[in-house]
Design goal:
With about 325 residues, this protein is an alpha/beta fold. Helix content is about 50%, strand content about 15%.
């Protein structure tokens, strides 16, 4: 509710201040870009795109969502540089690889373009080295710890778990994996492997099956987003593993919600990515028009279980969750 109230206040502020911004660009002259490390073909990013588009319509500005077809940092950086050359009114980007983003963002800021980070940011040891103005998203590391703690009561001491990562090297996913691993090893005395399952669903199922055959004592599988969750759910269903291997995931999509309702998946972390797209455009608009500095915005880390899945299912189908 607090976030909703905050959103309403920001929009009201935008509308009220709009009457006094005579020296600033008109809204229809502004173009904002939100550039992710993957495109709307990924169900997760389709929701972000919807948030971007809805904010653009509400504010009367051009709001463009872009991302490579698959995880591809160089292609993402090229899109960012193209937006800079197009004289964007503001850019939001994911910090998908800390090594890749310091210089492009520094250059954009040097040309007077506001830049905010969304969804994922650099690791703690590099914090402050990339000059974006604010972060809009979830704390990935803490979310990983929270996800692991959700199933600790169902695991035995010393349990063996695996983290199936579909975009190895991705800063945010690696932070989630780190949080999960620390909780399982430190609080349960367990063992955690990290497994690169790729973004290809068929390959992912084959990799997971081979892993479980070699590690039959695996008690839990953590997937880090729909691209990993969907093939894992199919494997559990096809191989009759429901009730034998626990599963926890991140983010919402109809397949994951159905799996939660069926008891295949224990639950999933909800980072409310619609807000990451919507609020990025709102904050960049306020910065470009009224020189209001963007502020960090925590989009939250709820946990959807069988008890709450039905309440969000229709919103998932509509593309808002």
């Amino acid at each position: 509710m607090k976030r909703l109230v905050g959103l309403i206040l920001v929009l009201c502020c935008s509308l009220v201040l709009g009457g006094f911004g005579s020296a600033a660009l008109a809204a229809d002259e502004m173009t904002f870009y939100v550039i992710a490390h993957a495109g709307p073909g990924d169900p997760f990013w389709a929701v972000v795109q919807r948030g971007v588009q809805d904010a653009g319509k509400a504010l009367g500005v051009r709001a463009i969502f872009q991302g490579p077809a698959g995880y591809n940092v160089p292609e993402q950086v090229a899109m960012f540089r193209a937006a800079v050359e197009a004289k964007a009114s503001g850019i939001a980007t994911t910090i998908s690889d800390a090594r890749a983003w310091a210089e492009p963002i520094k250059e954009a800021r040097g040309r007077g373009i506001p830049v905010v980070a969304i969804n994922c940011k650099e690791p703690a040891e590099l914090r402050g080295t990339i000059p974006y103005m604010a972060y809009i998203g979830m704390d990935e590391y803490e979310a990983g710890k929270m996800a692991a703690r959700q199933i600790l009561p169902k695991l035995k001491k010393g349990a063996h778990a695996v983290v199936a990562i579909h975009q190895a090297g991705h800063v945010g996913l690696e932070a989630r994996a780190k949080g999960i691993s620390e909780v399982i090893t430190q609080e349960l005395g367990g063992k955690v492997d990290k497994l690169d399952i790729t973004q290809d669903a068929t390959q992912a199922i084959g990799i997971l099956r081979s892993y479980l055959k070699a590690n039959p004592d695996t008690a839990a599988i953590f997937t880090l987003g729909p691209l990993g969750a969907i093939p894992t759910i199919k494997m559990i269903r096809d191989d009759g593993l429901k009730g034998k291997v626990l599963m926890v995931s991140f983010d919402l999509d109809p397949t994951v919600i159905q799996a939660i309702s069926e008891g295949i998946c224990e639950g999933t972390v909800d980072q409310q990515q619609y807000l990451q797209g919507y609020m990025a455009v709102v904050e960049l608009y306020l910065c470009a028009k009224f020189k209001l500095n963007p502020a960090d915005y925590d989009t939250g880390r709820g946990f959807v279980t069988a008890e709450t899945a039905s309440a969000v299912a229709s919103l998932v189908k509509q593309g808002y969750r």
